[in-house]
Design goal:
11 strands; globular; binds S-adenosylmethionine; binds zinc ion; single chain; Rossmann fold
């Protein structure tokens, strides 16, 4: 972590500035300490998410994730890395942008984002699961992608207000207990005029009775989720598109300037 990245970080509990050290980061206001595990700081405000507790469900998801992605690719007949590049390419991310990959999982979005922002951009990635951030770290290193990776909770983001040009969220919004809080947090950390993309499961109207839609909803009820358009400020003028054979939605919008 270099100094210029530290200016983006805030204590997830109190919003204070944070100082780094090899074994733990510390809030300069409330003095909370945040452990660094495998070079990844765990910036978690909630005590239930201290290392070793509270994330076993998410870590089990990590173990299943490569298999799940392979099954999707076969079922949807798509090559996911290419599809990610195509979908992320539509968001409006520019060279030099500072971008957050929100709920990064094992980091599948990172190559597409890194190639859009180029060497003058800055890439941050966060996820609540320890296993996922470790996988993202390994993946980014293997691909020679410079990314600042943090373990963090989407409901208490450890980032400063108005600091990202773009926030990319693929795949968890439907699972959040408090979707409004998660979207408000994304809006808080995005610069006015910055762009936000939310992609998750959802069947395109008119396709509910196809065999693919029925199979997906049967295997995973999250596919009956609706795009959370009501949680996006009306002034943001959200653009909704149905993607991946009409079984996912992508919403792209800009944070209003006032
Ligand atoms: C379906 S995966 C998507 C991963 C990745 N964005 C992708 O496109 O492959 C959902 C991710 O959300 C993470 N997640 C779930 N709840 C979270 C929370 N409250 N805060 C941060 N990450 C969370 C999970 O650990 C998991 O990695
Ligand atoms: Zn603090």
């Amino acid at each position: 972590m270099n100094f210029s990245s530290l200016e983006y970080i805030r204590c997830p509990a109190c919003g204070g500035k944070v100082a780094t050290a090899p074994r733990a980061w510390q809030c300069l206001s409330c003095r909370r300490s945040y452990p660094v595990e495998d070079e990844i700081p765990a910036l978690l405000a909630q005590p239930q998410f201290t290392p070793g507790e509270g994330d076993t469900g998410l870590d089990a998801e990590t173990a299943r994730y490569p298999l799940l992605m392979a099954a999707f690719a076969l079922l949807l007949r798509v090559w996911l890395p290419a599809e990610r590049r195509r979908l992320i390419g539509r968001i409006g991310i520019l060279p030099g942008d500072v971008v957050l990959d929100h709920c990064t999982g094992p980091g599948g979005n990172l190559p597409a984002i890194a190639s859009l922002i180029g060497p003058s951009g800055k890439l941050f990635a966060m996820d609540l699961s320890r296993a996922m951030v470790r996988a993202a770290q390994r993946f980014a290193r293997a691909k020679h992608i410079a990314a600042e990776i943090h373990r963090a909770d989407a409901l208490h983001l450890p980032y400063a207000d108005n600091c990202f040009n773009a926030v990319v969220h693929y795949g968890a919004i439907n699972q959040f207990a408090d979707q409004r809080k998660a979207i408000d947090e994304i809006l808080r950390v995005t610069k006015p005029g910055g762009v936000i993309a939310l992609l998750d499961e959802g069947i395109e109207p008119g396709k509910e009775n196809t065999w693919l839609a029925k199979l997906l909803v049967w295997k995973n009820p999250l596919f009956s989720s609706r795009p959370p358009l009501d949680l996006i400020p009306p002034k943001a003028n959200p653009r909704l598109e149905w993607v991946l054979r009409g079984v996912f939605y992508q919403i792209i919008f800009r944070k209003p300037s006032v």
